[in-house]
TrEMBL record:
PANTHER family: ACYL-COA DEHYDROGENASE, ACYL-COA DEHYDROGENASE FADE28. Residues 226-362 form the Acyl-CoA dehydrogenase/oxidase C-terminal domain. InterPro entries: Acyl-CoA_Oxase/DH_mid-dom_sf, AcylCo_DH-like_C, AcylCo_DH/oxidase_C, AcylCoA_DH/ox_N, AcylCoA_DH/ox_N_sf, AcylCoA_DH/oxidase_NM_dom_sf. This is Acyl-CoA dehydrogenase family protein. Its cofactor is FAD. Keywords: FAD, Flavoprotein, Oxidoreductase. Residues 7-119 form the Acyl-CoA dehydrogenase/oxidase N-terminal domain. The keyword Isomerase does not apply. It comes from Pseudonocardia eucalypti. It comes from the Bacteria. Belongs to the acyl-CoA dehydrogenase family.
């Protein structure tokens, strides 16, 4: 599928992805995949690549992609968030693909972007360490110059698909500050393990580096900050989709659950909960759309928009997931119901790339409060 820039083309993209996921990634399938060894369905991932062209969505046309950007990427992630779809898409396309495309490193883009676009390469970005901090300035992993490039040493935690990705883009500290370094996942000096995660629909890994060979990608600290901004904007889009799914589920249940001979949705307390949640989800969607729009270029507003979207969308998804469980009552707490999966996603993604409080603090710094 070739993406465009018009509203009609973007809505066509949304409709196509929604139909595909409704058919190939229903709740029952998600539950099967989250318990499998792979964590996703390779056949469905292949169809996403071949039939919809999603792997190349945000990759320039000269590298085999369709030339889209954060806006088109946000549309797909919103739809994936609605269904908690387990897939290499987020790590490979939203994280690594965007990082490479924004790097300005022509050699790195030519080497890896075509393989990402055709689905033959999975990739991810590794930033956080055992301290749990996602701030580039807190990175302790070391990058040492070597005859053949660089050597990396250190431990990375909470790496999305870190235990299985073919390519790792690792944030490590060099002489000029934190930078991004490409490491082949199967190379010597790389030890990877899967972590037990709260969210079973998203796999996280631990990556230990002991003199692993690496190639530098892009510049120093400002570029790493750009990579993180693009990541939180992508995550915000996914969170909006999941929050919308929670709202939809709560409203539908309120229509059919009868108490005292009336649907519970007719009670004022439930109406107010749903109405308040609708306002919050729509506000989150606006924040996400704005962040995606300004991230499509080199706007100086991107850091502010990214911090705002990260803080607000995380909070809204958590509230939506909790309200969904509350409105469902006892059944919402059971393993058989999907409500708990959305709460798990909410609490897990709330801490990815920094907690909401950290993004609020950064936002305050950026606007001079």
């Amino acid at each position: 599928m070739v993406t465009g820039t018009s509203t009609a083309e973007r809505e066509q993209l949304r409709a196509s992805v929604r139909r595909f996921l409704a058919d190939r990634s229903p709740s029952a399938a998600v539950r099967r995949w989250m318990e499998s060894d792979e964590g996703h369905d390779p056949a469905v991932w292949r169809q996403m690549v071949d039939q919809l062209g999603l792997a190349g969505l945000a990759i320039p046309e000269e590298y085999g992609g369709s030339g889209g950007g954060p806006v088109e990427l946000g549309i797909v992630l919103e739809e994936m968030g609605r269904g908690l779809v387990p897939s290499p898409f987020f790590a490979t396309v939203a994280l690594a693909g965007q990082a490479l495309a924004a790097s300005g490193d022509d050699a790195a883009k030519a080497r890896w972007l075509p393989a990402i676009a055709d689905g033959s390469l999975t990739a991810t970005v590794a930033l956080a360490e055992e301290t749990g901090s996602w701030r580039p300035e807190d990175v302790a992993a070391a990058a040492t110059p070597a005859d053949d490039g660089w050597r990396l040493s250190g431990t990375k935690m909470f790496v999305i698909d870190g235990h299985s990705a073919d390519l790792l883009l690792v944030v490590a500290r060099a002489g000029d500050g934190p930078g991004l370094f490409a490491v082949e996942g199967a190379s010597a000096g790389v030890n990877r393990t899967r972590l037990d995660a709260l969210d079973p629909t998203r796999r996280l890994g631990r990556v230990e580096l002991d003199g692993a060979e690496a190639l530098r990608v892009g510049g120093a600290t400002p570029f790493v900050r750009t990579v993180l901004d693009l990541a939180v904007v992508a995550l915000a889009a996914e969170q909006v989709g999941a929050a919308q799914a929670c709202l939809n589920a709560a409203v539908e249940y309120a229509k059919v659950r009868v108490q005292f001979d009336r649907p519970v949705g007719s009670f004022q307390a439930i109406k107010h909960r749903c109405a308040d949640l609708l306002l919050e989800v729509e506000a989150a969607r606006s924040a996400s759309y704005h962040a995606s729009s300004v991230s499509a270029g080199e706007s100086a507003e991107r850091p502010v928009a990214a911090a705002l979207a990260a803080a607000y969308c995380s909070a809204v998804l958590t509230r939506a997931a909790k309200e969904n469980i509350q409105i469902h009552g006892g059944i919402g707490y059971t393993w058989e119901h999907d409500a708990h999966l959305y709460l798990r996603r909410a609490k897990s993604s709330e801490l990815l790339f920094g907690a909401p409080s950290e993004h609020r603090a950064r936002l305050a710094d950026l606007v001079g409060i």
